[in-house]
Amino acid sequence: MPLENIGRRQFLAAGATGLSTTAAYGAERFGVTEVFDETQITAIVPWAQGGGTDRAIRVTTPTWSDVLGVEFVVENYPGGSTQVGGEQLYNGEPDGFTLAMWNMPQMQATWLFQDAPYRIGDFDYLGTHHWDPTMWFAPLDRPYDDLEEFIEYAREEGATVGITASIGNTALSALLVEETYDLDLTIVNMEGGSGVRQAVLAGDIDAGVNQPWSFDPDHADDVTALGSHTAEQQELWPTAPAFGELGLDEIPLVEEGLGQWKLLVLPGGVRERHPDRFEELAETYAAVFEDEGFQTRIEEQGGLDEIADYRDPEATAEEVEETARFMEEYADVIESFIYDR
Amino acid sequence: MADGPAMIGSLLTPAAIEAGLGILADPYVLLAIVLGTAVGVVFGAIPGFSATMTIVLFTPVTIPFEPTSALIFLVSAYGGAVYGGSIPAILINTPGAPGSVVTCWDGYELTKQGRAVYTLAVSAIVSGIAGLFAAVVLLVFAPPISSFALNFGPPEMFLLAVFALTIVPAAKGASLSKALLAGTFGLLIGTIGNDPQLSQSRATFEQTTLLAGVDFIVVLIGLFVLTEVFRLAFRGTVVTGDEHARGGLSEVYEAARTVASRPIETARGMLIGAFIGSLPGAGADVANFVSYNEARRWAGDELADRFGTGAIEGVIAADSSNNATQGGALIPTLTLGIPGSGSTAALLGAIALHGMNPGPGLFESSGDIVYAMIFSLFIGNVLILLYGVSGSQYFGKFAYIPVRYIIPVVTVLAIVGAFAVRNATVDLYIVLLFGVVGILFVTYDYPLVSLVLGVILGDIAESGFVTGWLLTGESVTAFLFNSYIAIGLLVLTALSLIVTALKG
Question: Is A58's Cβ below 8 Å from some Cβ in B?
Fold first, then answer.
């Protein structure tokens, strides 16, 4: 076996641990299906442990494992604004034993604004998981209570705005607000949701752009929610007005709603080469969302059940294309941020 | 500055103590602590298997178990792994984890002098005490420390990294110019990968894995483990010279007396560790450098000169700080959902996996389990003390195993550890590359630790500088005098450099 093809589990098993026995626990417990003749599916997370995507997949795989009868092993490949994990998936075998929980528009951004070798057609899309709208937050001691007032403040005083990544939905939201109202914002990449949360709680920035679930609604009393980049109020953070409700309709993507999707993605070719596996994965993944235990589990995760939004493979593929289209439409906005500032 | 979140009340309430202690009375929970600590010590002792790796590896193992036992097992493994990293550092000059780099300096020198048992016992006693101290800090002082840690913004993190970098000129036995060159090389290595602000790649040589940069654990393994393996092969034995190998209980008793007679040194390391651990993004890997540097600075001239040649105070400084980071790192993790270190970030994932939501609501929704986790730290650290002290006489014999057995075992474990960090083949080549670099450094008398320090701190310094620079309006004065904390760090850095210069 070439060195490049040695997986982590084989390598570790050969080297130091007997973990494979434990990892196979689920397979023994539930029995391996005929369609899936191996005992483990690798779930790639293109972010570090403990982040939103990591937590979302980890609360999902136990139920999915119960339904499918195959154990999942979550592997984190952080770095490169999800490109490292993306390439891991892209280079994975299209056999149904490798998948990833990815997020968009970060996914599209890696090939639009970085040098990722893959494109939209290089993957199969299994289903969506949840949609977390883009939301603006501010420290409690600031003299503005919603985005409309923030815009006035920023026009007079200038403002620093923290974003979670330089090329994702939070960056796009900040740039669109800035462009629409001809503001001169200092937009700072805080390198993740934790960074934005810390900066807002500490009062280091005038506003932070994140998602409500990612920010954690338990912080509702600690910050001012300025508004969500949507036409209508979202459910997870009821005190936050929508841009549409504030009359800020001229900001692009308010009607469509700008947010972050988490979705399940497979290496391209699984559906064509192994349709039985693809179907079983799709059916069991859909069944996860009907499971009461899963619903309880995600409810305990800061109200994740409020934004859980399963869509089937076809609808997911359409959503991916639509997101890619608007990212391409606003590519010049982000490119000017990356290259011209 | 905002006052910070107001939702964090005092953690120490009678109801909390009752609930937490009630859970600890469960024999399965006690078993989880015993096993978790033991697993942590063993995995932490394997080069490359840091506390973070240990938690990541064992999180899936805990899935079938109920959340309380599972999380207490992982927290115990975390504490055990931080301590375990010091064992190979003392025995064979190869830190099991980044938090034990500095333990090598004096620990290994003492081993070469036939004092392995004594040094291991000191390390275990100090580690256990520091872990207990950290648990007290977490329980009693979490609310104020949590608010204070929030005020450590990007400029403060940059200045903390600069302060920690002042240890470079103090690197043992090296000329100032060579130490600075090595440190600068480390900082350059730290710039590989996507830039922290606009995510554009730098010096990645078309290697996707390098978009995430060069992992400092991989560098650590190459520099320390492979280099030491080569040196051992040439030297033929771990223990050098004709020193009489000392062992037995008398060494353990002497170790206890040594620690008891140095309360200030131990307390200083613990305070530094608990504080740095509580800062989001900095953990044992930074704390042990700062603690060692401060210990050396506060020592008298005669003692300061012995640092790096086998001063037990150096081991106390390193191991009191790295183990005290446990409690500190759990503070922002449990109270704010903001991980205080890589290990606690992995723990966040495990907490979510077991159906709990880390953050300010955690104490309300799952307070009994959280309190039990905190109380388990007390038992876990007593176990570290017991495992370490009782095991020191046996671990110490490792130094007398013929190198023809040590070399292949350590090499295989190191390579496995390097690969396990992120499952990347390119990391195996990086290990080999830095093994060669390490040999060149040793041959030409450049300090390895300065290079490692540069790699570890490079990322913190760059992110802190770039982000802080933008947040403070690109103003030098606003950046440097961003807060009283920043001013304090500036003063400390200046004093550090002046004292080092005066000491020649």
Answer: yes
